[in-house]
Amino acid sequence: MEPLFYLFSGFRWQDALDILLNSYVLFRLYVLFRGTNVIRALLTICVLWVAGQAAVSLGLIITNWAMQGIITVAALVIIIVFRNEISSVFQTKDLKSFLWGIPRHQFHTPLNIIADSVWALAQKKIGALIVLPLKQGLASVVQGGISLDGKLSQELLVSAFWPDNPIHDGAIVIQGDRIISAGVILPLSKRKDLPSFFGTRHRAASGLTELTDALVIVVSEERGKVTLFKENQVYDIRNRLALEKLLQDHAGDDSTKKGVRHQTIELITAGLISLFCITGIWLSFSRGMETLATHEIPVEFINPDQKMEIISSSASNIKLLISGAKPLINAIKPEQINIKLNLSQSVVGVNKLSVTKANILLPPGIRLKKIEPSELDITLDTLIKKELPIQPNWMGKLPMGVVMKEAKAIPKTVRVIGGSLALKDISTIFTKQISLDNLTESGTATVDLVLNPASLKLENKNKIQIHYLISKKPVL
Ligand SMILES: Nc1ncnc2c1ncn2[C@@H]1O[C@H](COP(=O)(O)OP(=O)(O)OP(=O)(O)O)[C@@H](O)[C@H]1O
């Protein structure tokens, strides 16, 4: 349970959206291409990709490299070999059916209508070629044809092969209870064991069944005979009942109910597999590229007692070692990390405060590995006010021949606010250094005061003026 928790620790709503969105795209691709050979090829690529990932985790460098090469070549081969199938999927779908809806395969084929029509065609010696696909798509092996969407009826089927009909040449494809295309050119068989009286119509039927799982019915124009082709087998059909029996075997008994249930299970399984695959990809990206980084973050002290002040802290910044997915780590801005220490329980003097995970706020998806230092010494003091006399801080030497008679600060004293410990030993406050070197006559210098330690503050921030009186040295 714990490893699973680790895998999903720091899981963000963005990740959930990411996974759901891409799972849906994968599921839609399956829905659009199911029943075609493209989906089988894509599944093979998925298996290769999983094998490649397994090779990476086992450290099999050459195997992984080979897998990647094979996947690249396979992707190109799919596009080239299945271009007809891919383009037929894109041509027959509008935007809505790309994004939404599940085209149900129509399983209920009125076999009796087909059997009656074939028999009627045979009796009239009208040549016919009828294709009933099963699971495999035909687009990659057939050519030409006109797309139709006509409801199957004996009249339509018989009239389609009527010699005067412009679409009588080629094959008719039936899916469910619809005639979906006519005038389709099938691949010719190269088999040598077919009877010599089989011309191109029969060879075309055999050719398609050699490459797909479709069933093809041929009505001979010359002999008025019916021949059925399926999985490389050739069946000489003597009566209508035998034809219907073979058609039923092809479609499967009770196909309607089984089909709908089967499709629902198939789609739920496809949805779950899509979710599983994309979650796996997300994990391999987000956890596989786990990286470490160090950030130095300033400590923020919260809830201080207003009557106290921080005199010193053993460190003002804390080093954090963090880990997470490389893209997340790279995207971190320092202001997204906060360290807050609560001073509400602190007392005057030295306080040892521990820095724990609870004090640190990290962006989602980032984990904390190390805190350095994990303990701070914070010295606090009670704030007091003290009146201190101002002392000018002279430096250098007066020029020859002059002396300073008097110097006084205005104001004479200032009120300093600071910690009681810091102010205890301070009896004077000095100005910044004032150079004596160029003072030849009396005047006023405006100066700042030096606050040492820096935690001291002045009650009023007025500038200090030093009035000095200079006179000539009496000549002896
Ligand atoms: N590759 C093909 N795909 C689809 N239909 C084809 C193909 N080749 C031939 N046909 C159809 O077969 C007809 C020609 O039949 P042909 O007489 O050569 O064959 P056959 O097997 O002897 O049939 P039949 O016994 O009816 O004469 C064409 O007019 C055309 O409708």
UniProtKB/TrEMBL annotation:
SUPFAM superfamilies hit by this protein: YojJ-like
Catalytic reaction(s) noted: 2 ATP = 3',3'-c-di-AMP + 2 diphosphate
ATP-binding is among the record's keywords: yes
TM segment ranges: 12-31, 38-56, 62-82, 267-285
Any one GO molecular function term: diadenylate cyclase activity
Any one of the GO BP annotations: cAMP biosynthetic process
Location of the DAC domain: 92-240
Superkingdom per UniProt: Bacteria
Keyword Acetylation attached: no
Annotated EC: 2.7.7.85
Swiss-Prot/TrEMBL keywords: ATP-binding, Cell inner membrane, Cell membrane, Membrane, Nucleotide-binding, Nucleotidyltransferase, Transferase, Transmembrane, Transmembrane helix
Pfam family, one: YbbR
PANTHER family: DIADENYLATE CYCLASE
Oligomeric form and interacting partners: Probably a homodimer.
Functional note: Catalyzes the condensation of 2 ATP molecules into cyclic di-AMP (c-di-AMP), a second messenger used to regulate differing processes in different bacteria.
Family: Belongs to the adenylate cyclase family. DacA/CdaA subfamily.
Protein name according to UniProt: Diadenylate cyclase
Gene source species: Desulfobacula toluolica (strain DSM 7467 / Tol2)
